[in-house]
Please model this.
Amino acid sequence: MYTRQVLVSLFAGVWVGALMIASWDPIAATALSMGWIVEVVRSPFNTTFLILIMFMGAGAAFIYKSGGILALQNWIGHRVNTARDSQILTWIIGIFIFFDSYTSTIVTGNATRELSEETNTSREMHAYVLDSTTSPVTTFGPVSNWIGYQVSMIIVGFEAARFTASEVGITAFGLFLQSIPWNIYCFLAFFMVGFISITQRFYGPMLDAEWRSRAEKKTRRDDATPLSDITTDVGEPSEKNPTLFNFFAPILTLLIVGVVSLWWLGGGHQPGVDVATAFQETDVALGLLYGSFAFMVVGMFGAVGFGAMDLEEASDTVINGFKTMMIAAAIIVLAWSIGHAAEQVGTAQYIVDVMVGSGIPGSFLPLIIFVAAMFIAFTTGTSWGTMAILTPLAIPLGYELVGLSILPVLMGVLFGGAIWGDHVSPISDTTVMSSIFAGSDHIDHVNTQIPFAMTAAGVTVVALLLYAVGITSAMVLLPLSIVLTAGVVVALNKFDARRKNLPEVMPTAEAIDNGEVDVAGIENGNRSAVTGANGTYDFFTSIPLIAVGVVLAYLGLVFAFVTFGF
Model:
């Protein structure tokens, strides 16, 4: 919290752990810290994971640099006529880029920023859609570097609990799959983006930002300071023969090769091995490595083959794509290291002993873990670092207090709580990147996103309280939470719009320009002027229908992945 520097703080945690082991000798502690970092990097799983995220960075760079994004804009841009359309489109593209949150923020932000400016979407709303779509969808996968990282954390948790997959009858990947329906916060955050965009019901500071953008044509407030654009890592997209092939082909290749590789490496091709067993026994990191390599190669062939760039430019794009992942790689290595440090000093066993002796009912443990993850992620600004700190504590604690059955619940709420902290922390890397690629003032983005994140977190707390009193089915709690979230959003929108004397359903900029809305009357506090100012939208136009279709297909894919996985 003091330094606001994630890398410095993570290393400090590693070093303090080493200092304890080294009998408070600072020189020996420094040497031991270096040894721990080398040790975690040399792990076959971790080494494979570092390589695969580099390949994903390169593949994403080809999607952007080859003009695939321009082709997408040319294809669908004429259908985007309102701010609502641009917000829904941003949501849709964010769903397609489900393999890495950094990549999704960069690609989606650049793909939709110009359209959202033209349709008078506030920079704050554009940043919110980016931030609250990218992390949730990459958490679920079905093929992403987040999955590889989360599985690696579960492996660390197994080691902290001192049991093996064979002893408890489930692999780390199998436990991850079972945790997905319990990641309630991420499902709600993802749902809220679409629900708010489609209904145009805003509240909190976002209501003011959207009214300003539509009525005053100011997509940023007058004294806002937008963060600079860092697209120089990759360069401007090529305008030579932009084609949709260079957008869709690499993504489809990643999905197909990744899933087939996971199935094959788990022995799915062998007689008598069903799909569930294959996914349970697979090598996650290696399967994702094959998928990410194919992702990069197809992107490179498409870029060169369609004349978007020559071979030299393609080689430079590979390196530049690697550069976009360097910060992520540094955080990952230190997150692994702090997890190893916590294991070495016995943090998990200490926490287990305290909690077991305190008499806290095991049914309340998911709520405790969720709140702890929220706090740590908010103060550190890193969801991955939070997972590294808490997973080695949560797994042995849950196993000792309740047993194997609670572990999927704990992992789901832990991952969700970590991402909540990411969404509301001003020092979060993904939050900063969302501000950058939306062209938003960073603090404005954080302030407008907090009420939405708090809504999803509040409903999650309610669901976990219901779990504590005996409703222990995710198939009951998750749909109930979604319905409750929709009701809360509408209620808060009505309350805040009435309090501020603004329309409940934000009208289009065109309706305001055409004089259909009495802007002067509304701003002078005339309540009657608000009565007829609500926007009217057709829910059966192409953009909303495509969005619903894409979301249903994506969620169907995720839950099929979960079902066949265990």
Notes: The mean pLDDT is 86. The chain is about 75% helix and 0% strand.
